[in-house]
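Kindly review these tokens for lecture notes.

. . .
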Amino acid sequence: MEKRVKSLRLLSLCVLAIIIAVFSAGELRAEFPDRNITVLVAWAPGAASDISTRAIAIGAEKYLGKRLMIENKGGAAGTVALSVLANAAPDGYTLCSTPNISFVDTPLMQKVSFRPLASFTPIIGHSLAAHTALIVQSDAPWKTFKDFIEYAKKNPGKIKYSSAGVGSGMHVCMEVIARKEGIKWVHVPYKGGAPATTALLGGHVDACSAGIGWQIHAEAGSVRSLADHGKTRCPDYPEVPTLWEMGYGITNDTIHLIAGPAGLPVEVVKKLEEAFKRGMETPDFKAAQKKLYLDPVCLDSTACEKHLKERWVRVEEILKNAGIITEAATKPQ
């Protein structure tokens, strides 16, 4: 009898321990986050991804009650940081900020260590860079896109151009042009749009297929835009033609995203999604968008996932038609 009583007491203690553990786990989940969150920015300091991420973090931190620790990890058009994210614990404490091209365009063109459409949980799309562009120094001999193309055709291998990296949307645009026009030029990739533009300003390259923000230098009189990568002309530079209207069949609709690793709990995704939406409402973020010439856009987790899947199909077709790839370098799933 005494042994039976002891057994029942032991069983009761075990059941009580399990109940406490279950409730404790629930409380921990409800209290996310209980420590600071690391946000990897997949581009160099000063790039649009960097500045916009630091701006959106201000409002997000106030909502979450914890710091967002920004860590720049540029390289390979954003895929270096995404490789780190793919192997992070799915707990919401490691995130990555990078444009859609890092998930789609680059993996289509080169092998990466992650599954572009399966290794991540998109959280929010917060900014649209509709008007990246081909730019040259203001005193360059080419006054128009036509002048530039004619020179490049007559002087194979002489034009050196910079971009934000191999596989970036800006690089793809130049490869589509080269393929259609039969041009040979030299691509000089950098770890982000800012250093790529700096290379042009310093005279290290002849042209730059520039990320958003080139307008600042145009306003200062340092550069001239020859072609816009948007589908419609930039309202501030209506005289600059787009690649789309000139028949190249390509646009660079770059959307800046924040994502976590695959398998993030639904409640964590919702908490982060709401935090970043709050961050988008702050004067700091709106000022950063204006400074960077970014257009407002807000895609929640579900919309982000749909966007990336649709972009994969569209960009894969563009690259195949342009002869840049024969098949995807990386499988999406």
